[in-house]
């Protein structure tokens, strides 16, 4: 049980690292959204692992469902923002957008 | 009864959206103004009830909402700020009034819900509601500037929310529940020896909340967001949104969950002092008035954070009062500058001068707001800064001295600014300035009156609280 | 079995950020969500797994693809140049990951034996999710509010404006 727990924690930390690295390095607006999405996947995995360990899986599932709904609404609004920025600027590159 | 704060705006949004074809668009704005005004009155009644009975007001239907002193004062501030912002919007927002009014109602819903829940995960849900509604509001005019500011705010807000959610997951892993009382029980049972993941959870929670409130070193999104938002949204952002979704959550978590943990308190003290210094010094260099006000907001939020960090009831009372005062004087400054921008068309302070003879009410209320910011008696800012500095003095003398010095720097800079903008030589570009009219004029008078009234009446409030036994001998 | 799935998930996440084409990145993100959903099902969370599969592996890639299709395609030279730049950017990435994994393992190693003793088993055993959902009604209200806000946001942002 403990070894499996360690493997889960390492994979959660790796997913966080992938998301944070991509957030720091990218210049494309859509990739910023994808990085935030990957970070949300990591937190979802952490919530499920937390529910499994504290033997309170019903509460953890309620949390995960709520987080998924919030995330999809925020993603839709952020996509609208990116679309508006593309229409105003003609490009998705953040380096070209500083006037 | 707390359910009314949630049910009435929600019913208004649903009814307005369903009846869209039958109504004029401006009806939506008036409905929102009436609901904001109703909330202000109702929250004032609740403050009275809470003080008289000394206990919380609980919801009878859901059993999960409750209002205590902290929640009632913040609800009052929310109602007041929404009212002010909607009246400013009546004059400045020309198209898409219907969408704007509905988004204001939704953000009021989010903030009301946030101050009334007693569970860490529900607070996260409402923080997300507030951030979603606020970046729709920032980008509502769909200009290039507004959308860029909204996207930067979205990025920082998403990172902060993810940090909060990670810490909630780690706390859930150790505790099995996320209500305030169960986490507080767990902490008192742990007796200072926390397991490793709880320490990481506290640190992540503090940093996430610091990003949301705009404390140093996470303050970089604040000037961009405040200056690229449309005028009524700037008033709302500076006046209430940053404070509710960042500082209120910090106050609630620090007092009721962490139970005034000293290590976290010291971390908050360092961040608060850094915010005060950086905000006060950076405000001096900027010429755009909205950016200057944004840096000044960072400085004032630093004061609230060090008031909370002391952990004493005196510091908490000072922080709560400064919370309310900052809403009134900062929003008054934003409203004044919006009026100047509307009537003269400039935002650069180097190009302004000699406005006092053309806009007497605006300049008078600006003087009141500046003096209240700097902490001069008899205005309200003096009392809150006095209480905070007294409380911090007991914790760390050097921090109190730094806070005093920063207050003096703020006062000097604001006096210089006031002289240049309002009393200097009239600059030729300002030929068309007239006094502001109608709604904005009445809002300026209202906010300055509140500043003066709270400042003059506060000693009596302190005496009343002492007699009612609520101060527990902290003088 | 779980280890293979977790490794697959990490590989899909890395592929998601390394791939140049945005459409392929969206597909990789959907694959990540699908593998996460299977992991959740193995850990005895079937309702959350169904939700995750239908929403994050279905709805969100649809939103992404519909947005990407509204965005113009770049020319051939620009794509070549961006590929070269991307190789330079991701050069340090595996090193970063390995160092981070080693740091986490080293930090957590003395605590492994502690974990099993600090779990607090709640007083009640597992309830049916519906009963628990009755005590989380405020979250339900919050979800309704945020869905309303999202509807307004989509109406405001996705509409073509006639003038700037």
Task: Write a structural description.
The complex is a heterotrimer of chains A (99), B (475) and C (164). Helices cover 83% and strands 0% of the residues of chain A. By secondary structure, chain A is an all-alpha fold. Chain A has a single domain (2-89), classed as Orthogonal Bundle (Helix Hairpins), CATH 1.10.287. In chain A, 64% of the residues are buried. In chain B, strands 1-2 form a two-stranded antiparallel ribbon. Chain B is built from 17 helices and two strands. The two termini of chain B are 34 Å apart. The radius of gyration of chain B is 21 Å and the shape is globular. Chain B has three domains: 1-117; 118-259, no CATH class; 307-475, no CATH class. With 475 residues, chain B is mainly alpha-helical. Helices cover 77% and strands 1% of the residues of chain B. By secondary structure, chain C is an all-alpha fold. Chain C has eight helices and no strands. In chain C, α1 packs antiparallel against α2 (22-42). Chains in contact: A-B, A-C, B-C.
Distance, first to last CA of chain A: 55 Å
Give the overall form of chain B: globular
Biggest interface between chains:
A-C, 67 and 73 residues
SSE-based structural type of chain A: mainly alpha
Number of helices of chain B: 17
CATH hierarchy: architecture of chain A: Orthogonal Bundle
Proportion of residues in extended strands of chain B: under 5%
CATH class of chain A: Mainly Alpha
Can you tell me the residue ranges of chain B where pLDDT is under 50 for at least 5 consecutive residues? none
Seen as an oligomer or otherwise, the chain set is heterotrimer
> Would you count the extended β strands of chain B for me?
2
Summarize model confidence as the mean pLDDT of chain B.
Answer: 82
Largest sheet of chain B: 2 strands, antiparallel
């Amino acid at each position: 049980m403990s070894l499996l727990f360690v493997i889960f924690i390492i994979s959660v930390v790796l997913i966080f690292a992938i998301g944070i690295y991509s957030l720091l390095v990218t210049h494309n607006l859509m990739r910023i959204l994808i990085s935030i999405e990957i970070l949300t996947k990591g937190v979802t995995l952490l919530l499920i692992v937390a529910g499994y360990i504290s033997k309170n899986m019903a509460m953890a599932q309620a949390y995960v469902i709520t987080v998924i709904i919030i995330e999809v609404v925020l993603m839709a609004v952020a996509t609208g923002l990116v679309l508006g920025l593309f229409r105003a600027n003609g490009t998705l590159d953040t380096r070209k957008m500083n006037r | 009864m707390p359910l009314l704060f949630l049910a009435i705006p929600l019913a208004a949004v649903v009814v307005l959206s369903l009846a869209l074809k039958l109504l004029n668009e401006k009806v939506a704005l008036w409905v929102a103004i009436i609901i904001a005004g109703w909330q202000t009155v109702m929250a004032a009644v609740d403050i009275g009830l809470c003080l008289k009975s000394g206990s919380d007001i609980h919801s009878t239907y859901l059993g999960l909402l409750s209002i205590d002193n902290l929640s009632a004062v913040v609800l009052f501030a929310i109602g007041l700020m929404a009212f002010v912002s909607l009246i400013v919007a009546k004059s400045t927002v020309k198209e898409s009034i219907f969408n704007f009014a509905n988004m204001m109602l939704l953000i009021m819903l989010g903030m009301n819900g946030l101050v009334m829940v007693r569970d860490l995960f529900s607070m996260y849900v409402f923080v997300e509601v507030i951030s979603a509604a606020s970046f729709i509001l920032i980008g509502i005019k769909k200009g290039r500037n507004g959308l860029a500011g909204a996207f930067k705010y979205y990025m920082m807000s998403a990172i902060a929310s993810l940090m909060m959610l990670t810490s909630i997951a780690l706390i859930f892993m150790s505790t099995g529940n996320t209500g305030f009382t169960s986490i507080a029980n767990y902490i008192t049972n742990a007796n200072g020896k926390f397991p490793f993941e709880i320490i990481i959870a506290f640190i992540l929670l503090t940093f996430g909340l610091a990003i949301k409130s705009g404390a140093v070193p996470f303050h970089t999104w604040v000037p961009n967001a405040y200056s690229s938002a449309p005028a009524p949204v700037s008033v709302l952002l500076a006046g209430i949104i940053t404070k509710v979704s960042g500082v209120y959550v910090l106050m609630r978590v620090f007092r009721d969950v962490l139970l005034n943990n000293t290590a976290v308190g010291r971390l908050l003290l360092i961040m608060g002092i850094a915010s005060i210094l950086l905000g006060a010094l950076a405000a001096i260099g900027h010429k755009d008035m909205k950016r200057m006000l944004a840096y000044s907001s960072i400085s004032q939020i630093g004061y609230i954070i060090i008031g909370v960090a002391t952990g004493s009831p005196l510091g908490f009372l000072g922080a709560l009062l400064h919370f309310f005062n900052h809403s009134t004087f900062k929003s008054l400054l934003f409203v004044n500058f919006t009026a100047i921008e509307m009537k003269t068309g400039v935002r650069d302070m180097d190009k302004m001068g000699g406005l006092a003879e053309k806009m007497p009410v605006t300049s008078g209320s600006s003087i009141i707001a500046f003096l209240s910011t700097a902490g001069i008696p008899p205005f309200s800012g003096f009392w809150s800064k006095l209480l905070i500095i007294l409380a911090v003095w007991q914790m760390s003398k050097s921090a109190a001295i730094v806070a005093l010095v920063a207050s003096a720097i703020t006062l000097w800079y604001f006096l210089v600014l006031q002289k240049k903008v309002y009393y200097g030589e009239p600059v030729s570009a300002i030929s068309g300035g007239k006094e502001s009219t109608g709604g904005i004029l009445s809002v300026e008078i209202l906010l300055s009156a509140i500043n003066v009234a709270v400042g003059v009446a506060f000693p009596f409030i302190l005496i009343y609280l002492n007699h009612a036994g609520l101060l527990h001998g902290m003088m | 079995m779980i280890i293979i799935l977790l490794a697959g998930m990490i590989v899909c996440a890395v592929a998601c950020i390394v791939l140049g084409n945005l459409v392929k990145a969206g597909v990789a993100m959907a694959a990540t969500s699908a593998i996460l959903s299977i992991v959740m099902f193995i850990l005895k969370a079937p309702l959350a797994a169904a939700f995750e599969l239908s929403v994050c592996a279905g709805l969100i890639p649809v939103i992404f693809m519909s947005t990407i299709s509204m965005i113009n395609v770049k020319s051939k030279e620009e794509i070549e140049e961006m590929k070269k730049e991307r190789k330079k950017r991701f050069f340090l990435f595996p090193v970063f990951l390995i160092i981070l994994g080693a740091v986490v393992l080293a930090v957590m190693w003395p605590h492994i034996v502690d974990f099993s003793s600090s779990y607090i088993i709640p007083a009640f055993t597992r309830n049916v999710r519906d009963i628990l959902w009755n005590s989380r009604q405020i979250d339900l209200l919050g979800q309704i509010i945020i869905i309303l806000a999202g509807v307004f946001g989509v109406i405001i942002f996705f509409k073509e404006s006639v003038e700037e």
